Amino acid sequence: MGQIQVGTSTSKFQVQPQPAGSVFPAGTTFALSSNDPALSFAADPGDPTGSTFIATDAASDTSASANIAGAAQLPAVNGVTPAPLATPVLVETIAPAAAPVATGAVVVQTV
Q1: Of 73, 15, 22, 86, nearest to 47 (Cα)?
Q2: 51, 73, 78, 87: which one has the fewest Cβ atoms less than 10 Å from its Cβ?
């Protein structure tokens, strides 16, 4: 199970072909969706294939987990568009680590 930290946008998810060693044909498009409305996805600008997404979880999210579905839409063949290839994955949403409570103090010059 993957994890997404609440209030961040650093988790990445990628739609990968199955079985291992297979490839998606040129022109395949990708999408991610979730049953948790606090999650949103944006294409990773560093991925030229378009199959990697950056997930953002709103700071207000209170759910403990979410299902993420990845889909690959293969291009049409002879005018026929195949059904999308899709698979869900369960991810755990985790609260950000709390700042440590101070156990001391120090005086520093600021100007």
Answers
A1: 15
A2: 78
* Tens of pLDDT, residues 41-87: 999 999 999 999 998 888 888 888 888 888 899 999 899 999 988 87
Instruction: Report the DSSP beta bridge partners of residue 66.
Output: 91
Note whether 53 and 71 are within 8 A (CB). no
β-pair partners for 14: 52
Query: What is the H or E stretch that residue 94 is in?
Result: strand 85-94
What are the domain boundaries of the chain?
2-94
Asked if residue 4 lies in contact with residue 94, where contact means CB atoms within 8 angstroms, the answer is: yes
